[in-house]
Amino acid sequence: MAWNEPGGGNKDPWSGRPGGDQGPPDLDEVVRKLQERLGGLFGGGKPTGNGPSNGGGRFSSKAIGVVLLILVLVWLASGIYIVEPAERGVVMRFGKYTDTTGPGPHWHMPLPLETVIKVNVDEISTITHRASMLTQDENIVEVELTVQSRIQDAADYLFQDQDPERTLNDATVTVVRVTIGQSKLDYVMTEGRSAVAVTIKQRIQKLLDRYKTGLIVTSVNMQPAKPPEQVKAAFDDAIKAREDKERLENQAEAYSNEVLPHARGRAARILADAKAYRDKSIAEAEGESARFEAILTEYAKAPAVTRERLYIETMEQVMSSNGKVLLDVQEGGNSLIYLPIDQLMKQQPQTTTKPGSNGNEEPSTVATVPEKTPTPPQRVVDRDRRAR
Asked: Which residue windows are transmembrane per the record (predicted)?
């Protein structure tokens, strides 16, 4: 039978005694018991009907020590800090710079002894400068550039300069005007633009280092310089003319590179042919001279025989270029001879016939040589004939 059924009696499980009050527990009783337990921990006695016990309302030394220890631990734990990879921690002791810490967990003496300021050193800041200024040749040009920088030294950035960003902006304005004022218009508007940007970057960094701003210039991007709007058309024509000049010069250079090697090759070939002709002429002259000296030696030994041989050789050379065929027929020989004259005329070298040992004609070969100036042996024959 359930405790709350009729006739079951008072079996309330939340009741401390049979037949007691069936209401909720007394909250005042619960609070009182909790206070008694806390009072026992900190040395408080249980109150009696006559008044407070000895030591009531005062904490024990043990409790005070525990509380102080907890407070010290909490104070020490408050000195733990973590520096992110893109940050640097600047530690100050009583407001004076002490150290700069890198990424990772660190500990410093908690407040009010030391404080830490975290500075993001990887963040890139950008400033843009646009202005019209005079060049060295007294022309007006519009220049626009962007300067990007980041923090290099966190301590210098915080303590050495009051406003590093303003210092960077002022340094950019000063350097740009000085650099453009020392350059000519054509140099700024054409191939010198990149060199001008490099010069501006170096000079800005020099000023930032002098003022100890803790900043480093990462890049300077210079847009193409433009002339004032009033004279833009004239400048465009001048630029177009300059581009046409460069294009024509490139074409001329390409043509020169194409023609010169061929000309050098022809010149080298002509020189080689001339040297070969020279060597050939010298060799032929030396050969003719040696041949003439050899004939002269034989002529001195046997003039008649040598003279006859030279005469026959000369006649062979003369007759070989002639279109006639000579036959030497002995007396009593066969005078009827069939010769294929047309075929003999076509053959090279041409042939002539002479009588053989048995009375028959045998062909003899005579080499055909081109006409040329009589050789020294022929002149010897002529002199010999005149002597006779």
From this structure: 63-83
Q: What is the pLDDT of residues 90-130, one digit of tens each?
A: 888 888 888 888 888 888 777 778 888 888 988 999 999 99
Encode 47-62: b = buried (16+ Cβ within 10 Å), e = exposed: eeeeeeeeeeeeeeee
Give the other-Cβ count within 10 Å of 380's Cβ.
18
Nearest to 109 by CA among 93, 87, 125, 132: 93
Report the C-alpha gap between 149 and 121 in whole angstroms.
10
Q: Compute the distance between CA of residue 276 and CA of residue 52 in angstroms, rounded to an integer.
A: 141
Higher pLDDT, 298 or 1: 298
- What integer pLDDT is reported at residue 356 of this predicted model? 45
Q: Could you give the CA distance from residue 148 to residue 27 in angstroms, rounded to a whole number? A: 69
Q: Band of the pLDDT at 341, cuts 50, 70, 90?
A: low
Beta bridge partners of residue 129, listed in sequence order: 145
- The residues spanned by each domain of the chain are 78-120, 125-226
Tokens linked to 193: 């633009």
Contact call for residues 56 and 47 (beta carbons, < 8 A): yes
DSSP 39-105: HHHTTPPPPBTTB--TTTT---HHHHHHHHHHHHHHHHHTTEEEE-TTEEEEEEETTEEEEEE-SEE
Q: Which two tokens stand for residue 285?
A: 């002259």
Partners of 48 in beta bridges: 51
162's tokens: 């009051």
Whole-Å CA distances, 54 to 42, 43, 171? 13, 9, 78
Q: What is the mean pLDDT of residues 322-350?
A: 63
Cβ(74)–Cβ(91) below 8 Å: no
Q: What whole-number distance in Å separates Cα of residue 168 and Cα of residue 124? A: 13
Cβ neighbours for 173, distance < 8 A, ≥ 6 positions apart: 129, 131
